[in-house]
M18 family aminopeptidase (Litchfieldella rifensis), 432 residues
Amino acid sequence: MPHDPTLERLLTFLHCSPTPWHAVANMCKRLEQAGYRRLDETQPWQLSPGQRVYVTRNDSSLVALQLPTDRLHALRMLGAHSDSPGLRLKPNAAQVSGGWLQLGVEVYGGALLAPWFDRDLGLAGRVHLRREDGRLQGVLLNVERPVAFVPSLAIHLDREANNGRAINPQTQMAPVLLQGGDPGDLERLLKRWLYEQHNIENAAILDFELALYDTQPPARVGVEGELIASARLDNLLSCFIGLEALLASDGRQAAVLVANDHEEVGSASACGAQGPFLGDVLRRVNAQLGETGEEGFIRLIQSSRLISCDNAHALHPNFIDKHDAGHGPAINGGPVIKVNANQRYATNSATSALFRDLCHEVGVPVQTFVTRADMGCGSTIGPITATELGVPTLDVGVAQWGMHSIRETVGSRDIAYLTRALTAFLNRAELL
């Protein structure tokens, strides 16, 4: 298959981003390489036209801004989320059973549990320490080699395993970590890994937020390489595409990329889409570069547009009946406009028309997804951000299979399609 630098960047980003903290750190690195300057929310900001800046909150959410070369009067905004469903360690995770040290886990978000069995699992997240001199420090940890495993029960011991048996995450999904270990070994192992990765010795571990993840690397699959298979495509793929579009834009318009944490658990947090993060940042920017006061901010938001990017359910060849007959998006068929009359998606006819016009302008095919009327519908940061800010919003995404599985699948051609459309959006002179 032909070499594609964009897809190679995507595979590297997915591989190096096992948690939201790693994903945001990697996005920040690319932004800084492109000339973006980091802002600190606790410090005064000095902004001027044409600058490129970014700010993070909780180290797991990010807002990047390309400031206009003239007066701020409208924002072209891209939104995604940095978190993915999975298994996260409980605070007192170490437990012993049957001669094995195991890890007690919580299910984060609506994870599809069955694919987690019999996978090689690494461990990643952030750890907070007290150093020998009394300083508190947070560091990222990524144990990339397989150190944990959730073994299946043999079918000989559970003859109903293929008949829809429910999975109990409390009693049946504790990964094995170390044979013959005891609870104190977990802290010992964490300290060893911290020393290997950060050369940190004699520090007290105060707390951690750690997640398990599949160590199988992302890959192009299919005879012609027409598919991308990876963990966390929902929604690191949208983070990647949004960043690619931002960096490829011409820089003349005011552009924003927001990647919120905690979408998979409802977005209600200080750094989630339902929280104040994005609004806080935009108000500070508007106070320096736009019309001051609350009326000026409202005028700015109503002149702006947000494209919320989150993957869509592709038509599955083995489950055709799970889609409405007229709304089954195809893999590699172009970006998908997501519509829901009950406002689970924020799309309306005006924002949809804008996106269709953008796709027509740059020669990108476009599709539409509506869930079956007899099925429930998921949601995105789109309706939540629209509710918090009042910004006219559209929900789009790349079509995918296996959403919320430990390994998901998208079309390799769809990455370029959506990137091209979003770049055109960021470059567009008139939004209304």
